[in-house]
Design brief:
35% of the residues lie in helices and 24% in strands. It is α/β, with parallel strands linked by helices and 347 residues long.
């Protein structure tokens, strides 16, 4: 990405609000998406993600607030903005008895692209980009769900847009299909595209996005760089020999946090991703030796201690107290449980 465009705002919203009578779907939303971002727009179903994307595309009008795309007000310059955007908001409708490439020809004609050698070359290029080059001549009805979603992405990319808006692009896909979409998004990022990706599957978002915004009940509750958000707190994972020793250590550290170790802000017990009992201690890593020494004085030997990297799912749960989506359900009973398990906050 060129230096002069590094901080260019591709999407900017100020006070964006959409209300349907008494229901406020989106409330006072301030977003900032920079050129080259793969931006994750996160929240549970019904949080207002699709409503926001529809407002960005001019499909519905906001009740209040302003939207700027590429520095242009979408209320007055939508005809200039839309040719620079590719989007999937709902499941696209293709003709089942036509081939993939013939379906793209229909989309191209509807987009104002004239038939000819140059545009046919663009369709071939897009089919290769979405890994359908070898299947472009096959009928759409023979495609897997993942292939159908990749053809939809290909249709959105036909005009070589600068900004790509994707609303829940992995919904309904099996793990292989999800991986294919993730890899495609990575290729788009490498090509310098700005991608705005709405999803509630946080484990996928963490793998592809550099910046995120978290929405809950229509309100923005956090926005920023993924790594900065996840490294905002310091937490140590402490492993002892047995469950009994783990429980003893929990009590000792909670008591110490109320006395001379007030730099311990929270202690909780639970299990790691392998189901082993561990403690999570919110404390600076520079204090790890003091924790080890305290436990040793009480006859407890630390088998392992290291800084615990919070996942985006855990961060979301801590912010909202809600289900983080399919990724969280798949891991229920494992690492996600630990931050809200049997331990209580240290006072």
């Amino acid at each position: 990405m060129a230096t002069e465009h590094a901080h260019e705002q591709v999407i900017s919203t100020v006070g964006l609000t959409k209300a349907y009578e008494s229901l406020v779907a989106v409330s006072d939303l301030n977003l900032e998406v920079l050129r080259g971002d793969v931006f994750g727009f996160l929240g549970p179903n019904g949080a207002g993600k699709t409503t926001t994307i529809r407002m960005l595309l001019g499909l519905i009008r906001p009740t209040a607030g302003n939207i700027s795309l590429f520095g242009l007000d979408n209320a007055t310059h939508l005809h200039e903005i839309l040719p620079r955007i590719g989007a999937i908001v709902e499941t696209p409708v293709f003709y089942p008895y036509l081939s993939g490439v013939d379906n793209l020809r229909i989309v191209a004609a509807a987009s104002g692209m004239k038939l000819g050698r140059a545009n046919q070359a663009r369709m071939d290029e897009v089919l290769d980009l979405v890994d359908l080059g070898a299947r472009g001549g096959d009928t759409y009805r023979t495609y897997s769900l993942g292939m159908k979603q990749r053809l939809a992405l290909g249709a959105a990319l036909l005009t070589d847009p600068e900004l790509i808006l994707l609303d829940e692009p992995t919904n309904g896909l099996d793990p292989a299909g999800v991986r294919e979409i993730r890899q495609l998004i990575g290729r788009l990022a490498e090509a310098g595209k700005t991608v705005f990706l709405s999803s509630h599957i946080l484990s996928e978002i963490q793998q592809v996005c550099n910046r995120v915004a978290i929405l809950q009940k229509g309100k923005l509750i956090k926005q920023g760089d993924v790594q900065e958000l996840l490294s905002g707190g310091q937490q140590l994972l402490v492993r002892l020999g047995t469950p009994e020793e783990t429980e003893q250590a929990l009590v000792i550290l909670q008591q110490a946090s109320k006395r001379d170790m007030n730099w311990i802000t929270r202690v909780s017990s639970g299990s790691d991703s392998h189901g082993q009992p561990v403690l999570f201690v919110d404390a600076p890593t520079t204090r790890s030796q003091e924790i080890t020494a305290l436990l040793a004085r009480n006859g407890l030997i630390v088998a392992e201690m290291y800084q615990h990297q919070t996942s985006l799912e855990e961060f979301f749960l801590e912010l909202t107290g809600t289900d983080a989506g399919e990724g969280a359900r798949a891991r229920k009973g494992g690492l996600l449980r630990t931050r809200f398990g049997s331990g209580s906050p240290a006072k």
